[in-house]
Amino acid sequence: MSPETQKSHPFESQRAEAGRKCLPQQLSRLSRLQNLNLSLNYLTGEIPVNLSHCVKLKSLVLEHNTLVGNNNQAGLFPGSIGNLTSLEELYLSYNNLEGQVPASLARLTKLRIPGLSVNSLSGEFPPPLQLLPNLQILYLAKCQFIGSIPSSLANASKSLELDFPINNFTGNIPKGFGNLRNLLWLNVWSNQFGHGKHDDLDFVNSLTNCRSLQMLHFRDNQFVGTLPHSAVNLSTQLQSLLFYGNRISGSIPKEISNLVNLNLFKLSNNNLTVFLYWRRNLKDQPAPEYRFKSARFYPNISFGTVYKGTFASDGTVIAVKVLKLQHEGASKSFLAECQALGNIRHQ
Fold first, then answer.
1. Which Gene Ontology molecular-function terms are recorded (predicted)?
2. Residue 7 CB: number of other CB atoms within 10 A?
3. Which of 101, 127, 129, 308 lies 20 to 30 Å from 329 when distance is taken between CA atoms?
4. CA torsion sign, 143 to 147 to 148 to 150?
5. What is the pTM of this model?
6. Helix, coil or strand: residue 44
7. Which of these, 50, 5, 2, 3, lies nearest to 23 by C-alpha position?
8. C-alpha–C-alpha distance, residues 140 and 146, integer Å
């Protein structure tokens, strides 16, 4: 093999060299730069401190890399980002940032979207993020945050999406979130919310003020108590409501049908008793009342118990099935029976 063929191609050498470096320091010379997107580039190393010289930067997107802070801070979140006071969007999710979110981020008064999910960030809910007057979307999923959600976050009146699942947050959902009238999305699944008291779900009452809500995810927490009747007054725009994996008891209010756009409603792995009501003849019949003149017990029905009853108001004969959703397979059985009942055509 000739010496020429043994040499690496200059382009290949540049690629290898680039793979061993963090973001180039020369980026700081781009004084007019407003948007920088280097996501999904397998970048490693540090976020340059002098990147803060790009004072006109409005959007910084570095997510899905393996970036860290700087040598002096051993991977900690780079506080120098707080000097980018024109910044409106900051996406640093899916990197190797560690430690607490620096107080300098409070200087980013124009910041609308901080995306910090899937890092090794720790500490209590980041105080600087509570002070952002233009906050709209907050992504803090799958970090190592602890403590409670501060009530001051309810002052972020422009909030559209609050997303901080898979952390170790405790306490409860601030009732002040009902003041977030533009809120579309609240996702806090897989935390440790709930005090173990029967008023754990009282915050649902306040969320009825959020008339644009489309998604509420509270699964895999420690909420107890009954599902408040006020849940039936949540936004009619609601499409997804998840409460499964808690310790909720009682039954589902019949007026839950008010949520006409709901397409995902999951309450499995709780302690609920679900009532299914149907009549022999549905034609021109008024809505039933939950009062019975007589009932007969039919045991040994899968996933629950069936009763034959008669309405006290008009004598209509009905069947009532009480499901025990804590039994494995009960949720699928419930959905299958609902589908079957929907296909029935009464004569």
1. ATP binding; protein kinase activity
2. 10
3. 308
4. negative
5. 0.75
6. strand
7. 50
8. 12
